[in-house]
Amino acid sequence: FNYTKMSAPALLLEGWLVKDGNMLGSWKNRFCSLTFADNQFTLDYYVSDNKTEKKGTFVIPRKSGFAKVADSGDIKNCFSLEVSQSGSGSRKAGAKVTFSAPTIESYVLWEKAFLNAKAPVGVMPGVGKSFGKPELMVIGASGYVGVATINSLASFAKDFIIKAGVRDVSSAKNSSLVGAGIKLVQADMSKPKTLVPALSGVKVAFVVVPGHADRTALGIAGIKACKDAGVQHVVVLSVCSVVKPGTIFADQFTPIEEYTKTCGMPYTIVRLPMFMENVLGQMQSIATTQQFYTPLDSHLEQNCASVGDIGEAVAKIMAKSENYVNKTLSLTGTPVNESQFAAAFSEVLEKTVTHVPVPYSASKQSMMDMGMPEWQVDGVIELYKLVASGEACLTSAVSDLPAILRRDLATPQSLAAYVAPGLKAIKAAAEYEAQVAAAEAEEKLKSMKLAAGEADAAIKAAEKAASEKAAAEKAAAHVKATRAMIFNGGAVLKKMGNEQAFKSRYVWIDEDKKTINWSKTDTKEGTFKSIVLSPGIVVSAPTFSAAKPAGMFGAAEPDGYIITVTESGKPSLDLKIEGTVADANVWITALQLLCVPKAKN
User: Pairing state of beta strands 135-139 and 161-166?
Assistant: First the structure.
């Protein structure tokens, strides 16, 4: 090859590469800059593409020894180079260093640059930046805040690699995290050794401190692992009540915030209030008795926020972390009171819903009956008391959330509208059961009056009562059978939104995996397709569809009700439920309840 000796180095190529470390399995994502002068290459490598923090330099002879290296697991598009000098002193002359290019196109560019000692034809220096995408990772991604953040980060998958860190990647409950652009990785804060490898090469990490009695140590372990792995920026979850020393949550999170601020990494602390979705733990009561209960007076305001708003805000902070360096942000909502929630639920149910204040002791017992540990329940009760006393940390309207989202925040009305189909389905099922009970009570009353009547009238009345009871029992048995069929599986007319005709398919709901599934066979065995029932799924109200004769595109259809399950960006799943609207509502209830999480602090 012909080349010209240069006194000033010529920039050949820049871009992201994964470099092997001095230790086995120690791979690092580095931004590399290749220049050529005086018959030798110089490869400088940095932590980020702004080239502010240089990690080292390799001097490589003109005959670089560029050689393709076999792929190893996830490490692909590999090549090795012979080093004549290491600026960091980490490699001896003649040693080989291995790199992995993010794409085969990037590999070809680096190969051409080293073989020809000039920039690849038609490629300007710096083009390599487009080949390597920085990584964003959520540690503790399976909780409510973690899931909401991952869901929002999915929209940034074009520019970032998104990693969801969970304790058990094989757990069915993590299936909702798997999607386009999302990589599920093991990252257990109670096992720090699992964190550093998972965090290697990550640009920004979000440490979702878990709801665990030992959350202080776990949170600090997660932050320390970020530092040890070379993470450039850490976002740490905290709570608004951290400013009230002596309270349970403040004593847990104060050491976490202090460690974050002194660990030497750029950071952002996000302080969270109570969640707006906590009230959804009482959906059954709201729908059936039109009441819900908290230990607050109905007029007292709190700055609770939607988990969805919080997740979106954290995702935007991670994507533009340079705008939030060393900041502590309050992600609180617009102050609202329990009366506003009651009014919102009343509107969607078209029936008056009321909030009932209860003593702290009753509220504590209710939460413990739900399975919450006592230390956490006591912490939540302290939050309610802070709201009742008007503490600014949980009642103030001052928030960083609107400036980050640049849109209106969630309200009781928007929350009620989101869960309205589920509430209406629960209400309809309860009303139907009440009608059955009323019919049974009426039959008993009639049977008591029969003794005073003549025998003929008594016989006729008894026959009528028996007929009504049989009808009621048949209807109740039908509902029970429908519920059993939903989870055990059975034949249902099904089509996708982009198809014209319904076809009979074996359909069932898996409560453990939170999926709705369908198969061409008449059992659950064999190949089947699924939709994960995550919070983003929309389930429609039932729409009547009259019977249709057989036609060119499909078989004959009976009367039935169509319900639609919609997953954003994908064709809808349409099911035609044969029978009454009550049958369709049983399906809607099963689907909606699996889509709505029961949130807790």
Answer: parallel
